Amino acid sequence: MSDLYARHxxxxxxxLALYYADPLEITHGEGRxxxxxxxxxxxxxxxxxxxxxxxxxxPEVTKAVSEQAGRxxxxxxxxxxxxxxxxxxxxxxxSGIPDARVFFTTSGTEANxxxxxxxTAYRQxxxxxxxxxxxxxxSFSAVGITGNKGWSPTSLSPLQTLYxxxxxRTRGPYADLxxxxxxxxxxxxxxxxxxxxxxxxxLIAEPIQGVGGFTAPPDGLYAAFREVLQxxxxxxxxxxxxxxxxxxxxxxxxxxxxxxxxxxxMLTFAxxxxxxxxxxxxxxxxxxxxxxxxxxxxxxxGSPVTMAAGNANLTYLLEHDLQGNARRVGxxxxxxxxxxxxxxxxxxxxxxxxxxxxxxxxxxxxxxADPDAAAAVLEAAREEGLLxxxxxxxxxxxxxxxxxxxxxxxxxxxxxxxxxxxxxxxP
Length: 427
Prior knowledge:
Layout: H1 3-11, E1 26-30, E2 33-36, E3 41-44, H2 47-50, H3 59-71, H4 82-95, E4 100-105, H5 108-123, E5 127-131, H6 140-144, E6 160-164, H7 179-194, E7 202-205, H8 221-232, E8 235-239, E9 266-269, E10 280-285, H9 286-289, H10 304-319, H11 322-341, E11 347-353, E12 356-361, H12 371-383, E13 386-387, E14 389-391, E15 398-401, H13 409-425
Helix pairs in contact: 3-10, 4-10, 7-8, 11-13, 12-13
């Protein structure tokens, strides 16, 4: 055990998750690579949990942070904040939500917490519809609507949560149906559920479930849900903490794969927009955002430094068409991984979109999740210089691949080759 690991264990919670049998200390990064304390170089295919969206040590972002920090670091939302207004204007316009208002927080958890507050206040209801296998953060309210028991340490909640089918296409009671049949069955389930409850405030859903193992429904499911919800005045919250900013390649927001019935009433965002700086937020229709009848502020949300980072990062993302790069390089990487999976009996499925890719592992010859194999592949990939993540619903058996969106074709090929060797070496 390293000295730092021993010190970590002595002062930090036991439930604070660490990857690897010998936990890794990352000291610096550049582009799509990071280095550990011993000087070993790694190709980063997880980006600090989908947060280093553009690149490590991106000069445009570090310059913006440094320059703003040299002027003033903090003021709070009690004062006008030019960088915050500028980023809010851009995010509102990009959101697709008409007459949008933006509230900045410091994390995705806090963003979802705020969205739940707005929805319950607007609708005067504490009932929330959520998806099975979902994850929405670690606050008390966010844990209360999380449909993944591995990340939900308590059933106590200020909310009454009702779980809906549809977030996982290839498992569950409707998995054998075709896409149209799957959507119809999930809609029928939703309508049946709504016939037994009073008046839910909102449905919150990740267009692609992150911690759940990068699972997703067929395109159009949430559009079909929205038709049902709108008739009853129930709001739709799209949790875009992991899917936003072009990561899926095909769309700038994940909800756009389900946009036939219009945009969501609210979307939440975080992670990639700050490229590592603490930014989260909610975009909502003005009538929803303005429904609170008491004062509120955010001490650290919208800070001048983080907003400067967000503006610089968003500019880089748009000017370099990183959404297009995610589509092109991600599509190539998915096909490469599917070719590898065809030769490996322990890979059940390669799924995902753009640079948000899941590799689900099972015990060969069965449909049983294999978390031991996932842990072994994670370790083997690290040994060869590749960092990946893991997740999954009933058991943590999905490898999560989500590199910075500036990933090159050569780096994608290098990562796929390492992952192929890691899969072969795992027991």
